[in-house]
Amino acid sequence: MSSEAGEGTSTSASPKKEQMDAQEKAQELLAQGKRNLICQEIPTAVQQFQDACQILSSAFGEMAKECAGAYFNYGSALLDLSRMEQDVLGNALEGVDVDADDEGGPNNKDQFEPPDKVDGATSKDQAMDDTEEGEEEEGDEEEEEEGEEEGEGAEEAGSQEDEDPDDVSNLQLSWEMLELAKIIYSKDSSKVSQLKAAEAHLKLGEVSLESEQYEQAISDLESCLEIQKKHLDSCDRAIAETYYQLGLACQMSKQLDKAKESFASAVTCLETKMEKLKAIVEEKPAKSPSQTMEPAESAQQEITEILDILPEIKEKIRDAEDENKSMEDIKNMAKQAMGTIFSAIPDSTSETGFAGTSSKSPVKSTEPQKTMDISHLIRKKRKPEEEEKKEEEDLENKKQKQEGGSGDSGVNGVHEKTDGKPEPVAAT
Questions:
Q1: How many whole angstroms separate alpha carbon 161 and alpha carbon 225?
Q2: CA distances for 189 relative to 176, 227, 269, angstroms
Q3: Is it the case that residue 67 has pLDDT exceeding 90?
């Protein structure tokens, strides 16, 4: 029974021993990677962080809290490596000799031009032998070409097999590692883990800035600020750094008012911190056992650092103001240009209700308008009273003319009968 119990104890202790060994080895790799980052040996640091992640994830599981620190360091180093690659991209072809591949090339004619003549080949038999050899060579060349084509096809197939479809860029892999770290840290409600989650948010914001995903960067940086404000002093330099990164993201996305506000918050935070540091310098408190430097000396050193940082942030504020003013000027110029364009286009409506008949706006003029008199061209219609009066006048004139004639004789040789009807008169 005791031997069985001993076997069970050793079996249960074995995984713990493996985990402890794995954690110890991973911690050693992480320490080496951090030193290499300081020495700017970024590719080496990336490899060491990657190895540490593999060891810890195999021992504890991919989403174990023991892996969060390795994920964070690996993602941060990948971000630095991506930035380094972008910096050297423009100089990638410097120092390359484009004529280096030409050595032994077309200039060496002996390798490409077969001899036109064979020394001593003057007989007919030799000429026939040359012909047969030529035919054999052509056949051999055809076989070689077929073999080369098959070889090239095999190489292409091999290269396609070698290509990893899951291969991603360093920037994308950086985002994935930092996202894993953020998720793991966020599950722990302790102050230390929450502040680590805030750091992951900050790095994720920087990754999004590098990839020009400005809205995502703003979201991550605002999440970082929200956590930091809960657990840090309002004048902590970590908050100032987050405000600065947020200002950059807003400036890139043309949210200039918000950018100016974020930069100004960073300045306020640093200036407040500097006032507290000045008080420490004046008080000169005693050094505690855990401190490696006198508090006053450390405070003075930090003041110097802040004084070096402040001008740059204030310059960012002026840049945001100038850019905002330039955008306003552009908008005003655009409005004026549009007004000029529309003033030159005929109005689509007119006072008569027909499109395109007038280039003036339908505003009534206050000046009296002169009208053309066409009354002489219009025949007015008489009123009934006037017509009746006119008929009476015509009848009266007719009677007067008849009475002024010869006796009972009618006018123009026409006599009136007693019944009132005229009758013709014979000519004399």
A1: 46
A2: 22, 11, 26
A3: yes
| Distance separating alpha carbons of residues 146 and 138, to the nearest angstrom | 12
User: Other C-beta atoms within 10 Å of 287: how many?
Assistant: 13
Angle between helices 170-186 and 68-89 (to 10 degrees): 150
Residues, the chain: 428
Tens digit of each residue's pLDDT (9 = 90 or more) over 80-89: 999 998 877 6
Contact between 211 and 173 (Cβ < 8 Å): no
The residue assigned the tokens 């280039």 is 359
CA-CA distance, 242 to 204, in Å (whole number)?
12
Q: Look up residue 110 and give its two tokens.
A: 């002996």
How far apart (Å, rounded) are the C-alpha atoms in residues 323 and 22?
A: 53
The C-alpha atoms of residue 176 and residue 76 are separated, in whole angstroms, by: 11
Whether residue 221 contacts residue 199, with contact meaning beta carbons closer than 8 Å, is answered with no
Q: How many CB atoms lie within 10 A of CB 150?
A: 10
Tokens of 416: 């009136």
With CA atoms as reference, report the closest residue to 193 among 218, 227, 145. Answer: 227
Structure tokens at 291: 């401190």
Helices (H) and strands (E) counted in the chain, each on its own, are: 11, 2
Q: How far apart are CA 261 and CA 257, in angstroms?
A: 6
**Alpha-carbon distances, residue 36 vs 31, 45, 47, 55, 192 (angstroms):** 9, 5, 11, 19, 25
Q: Which tens digits make up the pLDDT trace of 203-227?
A: 999 999 999 999 999 999 999 999 9
β partners of residue 422: 416
Query: Is-contact 352 358, C-beta < 8 A?
Result: yes
Residue 354 main-chain phi, psi, to 5 deg: -110, 140
What are φ and ψ of residue 326, in 5° steps? -65, -40
Rg from Cα positions in the chain? 52
Question: 10 Å Cβ neighbour count for 85?
Answer: 15
Tokens of 259: 């950018």
d(CA 181, CA 15): 24
